[in-house]
């Protein structure tokens, strides 16, 4: 990839180019290089036929829906070393089929909607982010096409259990952690508590009903006994 970028830098690109970016071309492969330009958002005037887009080392905080949809030939995106915190579900809509490489390492990402990445065939780099190790990240690790060299650097910044905080996600999973079981356990506990509450209410109702019937029966038994004495006094 570094050699490919070096080749692209050799030939200037004569067509329109975003401000603060350098556009180059080599053998028909066009690149837009916007590294370290203090950008706070993805440029909107990127040429449609770009193949490589480098936006690393900027101050981008969010990838909105359809951010690259107008770039049908895009194959590589480098968004490493930004300040990205939010990625919309449809952030990569329109480029999923052709994208080969997506670098999101070194940002501020805690979680990503899995719908945003699972449709991609690109090799993903997600290391060095403050990840929350939950079910979504575990499923992403199992289903997405991650760069093997960066998987070990996906570390749990937060987790449902304190013992996993600061550990690589792979190490936590190898030790038997299953973050996808936590919500189910919570749901099971809630259902058990609800059922116990209903049974307690039903038991209380039955007890009150039985006591009430006993008191009524006792009253009926005592009332006839009083009648003979009443008749004797009348005579």
Automatic annotation (TrEMBL):
The chain crosses the membrane at residues 189-210. It comes from the Eukaryota. Gene3D superfamilies: Ribonuclease Inhibitor (3.80.10.10). Its main location: membrane. GO terms for biological process: axonogenesis; positive regulation of synapse assembly. It is a single-pass type I membrane protein. It holds the Pfam family LRR_8. Residues 1-16 form the signal peptide. It is found in: Membrane. InterPro entries: Leu-rich_rpt, Leu-rich_rpt_typical-subtyp, LRR_dom_sf, LRRNT. Keywords: Leucine-rich repeat, Membrane, Repeat, Signal, Transmembrane, Transmembrane helix. Residues 16-52 form the LRRNT domain. One of its GO terms (cellular component) is membrane. Belongs to the LRRC3 family. This is LRRC3 protein. It comes from Emberiza fucata. The gene is Lrrc3.
């Amino acid at each position: 990839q570094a050699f490919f970028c070096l080749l692209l830098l050799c030939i200037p690109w004569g067509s329109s180019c975003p401000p603060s970016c350098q556009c180059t071309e080599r053998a028909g492969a066009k690149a837009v290089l916007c590294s370290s330009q203090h950008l706070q958002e993805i440029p909107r005037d990127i040429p449609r036929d770009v193949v490589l887009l480098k936006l690393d080392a900027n101050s981008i905080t969010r990838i909105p829906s359809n951010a690259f949809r107008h770039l049908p030939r895009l194959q590589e995106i480098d968004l490493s070393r930004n300040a990205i915190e939010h990625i919309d579900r449809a952030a990569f809509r329109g480029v999923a089929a052709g994208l080969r490489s997506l670098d999101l390492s070194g940002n501020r990402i805690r979680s990503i909607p899995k719908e945003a990445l699972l449709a991609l065939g690109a090799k993903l780099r997600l290391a060095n982010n403050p990840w929350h190790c939950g079910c979504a990240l575990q499923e992403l690790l199992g289903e997405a096409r991650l760069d093997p060299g960066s998987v070990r650097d996906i570390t749990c910044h937060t987790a449902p259990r304190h013992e996993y905080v600061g550990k690589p996600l792979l190490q936590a999973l190898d030790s038997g952690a299953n973050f996808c079981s936590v919500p189910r356990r919570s749901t099971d506990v809630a259902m058990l508590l609800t059922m116990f509450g209903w049974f307690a209410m039903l038991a209380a109702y039955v007890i009150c009903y039985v006591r009430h019937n006993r008191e009524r029966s006792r009253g009926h038994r005592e009332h006839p006994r009083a009648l003979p004495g009443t008749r004797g006094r009348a005579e």
